Amino acid sequence: MIALLVRDMKLAMRAGGGFGLGLAFFLIVTVLVPFGVGPESGLLSKIAPGILWLGALLACLLSLDRIFALDWEDGSLDLLATSPLPMEGVVTIKALAHWLTTGLPLCLAAPLFGLLLSLPDTGYVWLVLSLVIGTPALSVVGTFGAALTVGLKRGGLLLSLLVLPLYVPTLIFGAEVARRGALGMDAMTPLLMLGGITAGTIALLPFASALVLRVNLR
Amino acid sequence: MGSIWEYANPVKFVRTSEIVLPWVSVIAMVTLVVGLVWGFFFTPDDYRQGSTVKIIYLHVPAALMAINVWFMMLVTSLIWLIRRHHVSALAAKAAAPVGIIMTVIALVTGAIWGQPMWGTWWAWDPRLTSFLILFLFYLGYIALWEAIDNPDTAADLTAVLCIVGSVFAVLSRYAVNFWNQGLHQGASLSLDKEENVADVFSTPLYICMVGFGFLFIALVFLRTRTEIHKRRTKALLARERLG
């Protein structure tokens, strides 16, 4: 399992692996928002938590089709399927690798981008906290979507259509934590809900992902 | 009378549906005509809402069906995954477009009613938002069916998507409740409540709900039969090409 994790991380970090692409996308979204809505810092600080969450979510979405596509093309997915590692384990490791290469950098970069959108001082801790707790759910749900569409040519658009509705609860609670944090309100309730969603998806969705991946490899 | 699983045999299903379909269609037509005509022309105008209240006869049954169709798809998806009956998977496939149309009817009639009543076509109210999310789920489900060539793979993948989607749809419903306060009125047909829709309005409404239910059953029968026939034609053509 660890070998698979290391391999996936290495592949993602190498040139052409797309590491940093999500981060760059996140940066561009953040930079474009003030052009779209105007540079007043009052308005920006009001919408900053939501925009940052949305940007992180879209950046996550962008890299989803990489989870299985390359392994599918060169046949290493078949090898993984016949390896002694259960499919559920493969899927979980893939999701973890995706989070480490996409979600974690986003969490670390978010405060910097918050600066650009004049996020209020009280918001930073909550923003990072909500992203750290919420983005694993994005990776796990995204892995399910990627497993569903792995066999399809041009599955990218369909992948977004399938995954985005599944992101709704995570986005609602995550953005709510960041918003309440920025306003200096108590954000414990949505934070716990967010944690619940993440824990639930990590516990249950790998089974569904493994099931659909087996169907796709049939 | 054998077990219900007999109808998992496509031949048996087609034969039975041939007998049942005309009856169901007629019942659907009669109840819909009676319910809608009664509702539109023989109920008084509401003293505050005027005649716009009458859109309820389309709105409520459509919304009811939109949710129940998804539930039916969930059940048939589970049957497909557990017992591998092809009719079940095809019924789920046949129901999805009906469900999405019901969702659209509910959303559109709601908007038409909301414009004069709330002064807006759309508000980010929990109920409205949940229906929009339900619409997206239907869209994804249908798109996945369309995208995959192999019918068995498509049936498997969509069934899993339907089950996972159901969980997330319920989650979204509660998340949305948490996220914003509602503008939409609460349930007004509950059995245990003091304040309900007045009887003059509710009787034709119940008839319309039954009518929409039968209409859905008739459409699903029809569409499932079409799917079975389509698959049989495909198989025959393939055999012909081989022979």
UniProtKB/TrEMBL annotation, chain A:
It comes from the Bacteria. It comes from Shimia thalassica. Keywords: Cell inner membrane, Cell membrane, Cytochrome c-type biogenesis, Membrane, Transmembrane, Transmembrane helix, Transport. Belongs to the CcmB/CycW/HelB family. It is a multi-pass membrane protein. GO terms for molecular function: heme transmembrane transporter activity. GO terms for biological process: cytochrome c biosynthetic process; cytochrome complex assembly. It is found in: Cell inner membrane. The chain crosses the membrane at residues 12-35, 47-64, 96-117, 123-150, 157-175, 187-213. This is Heme exporter protein B. Pfam families: CcmB. The lineage of its organism: Bacteria, Pseudomonadati, Pseudomonadota, Alphaproteobacteria, Rhodobacterales. InterPro entries: Cyt_c_biogenesis_CcmB, Cyt_c_CcmB_bac. GO terms for cellular component: plasma membrane. The keyword Membrane applies. The keyword Protein transport does not apply. Required for the export of heme to the periplasm for the biogenesis of c-type cytochromes.
Automatic annotation (TrEMBL), chain B:
It holds the Pfam family Cytochrom_C_asm. It is found in: Cell inner membrane; Membrane. The keyword Coiled coil does not apply. GO terms for molecular function: heme binding; heme transmembrane transporter activity. Its main location: membrane. It is a multi-pass membrane protein. Keywords: Cell inner membrane, Cell membrane, Cytochrome c-type biogenesis, Membrane, Transmembrane, Transmembrane helix, Transport. GO terms for biological process: cytochrome complex assembly. The chain crosses the membrane at residues 20-43, 55-82, 94-114, 126-145, 157-176, 203-222. Residues 5-184 form the Cytochrome c assembly protein domain. GO terms for cellular component: plasma membrane. The keyword Kinase does not apply. Belongs to the CcmC/CycZ/HelC family. Required for the export of heme to the periplasm for the biogenesis of c-type cytochromes. NCBIfam families: ccmC. This is Heme exporter protein C.
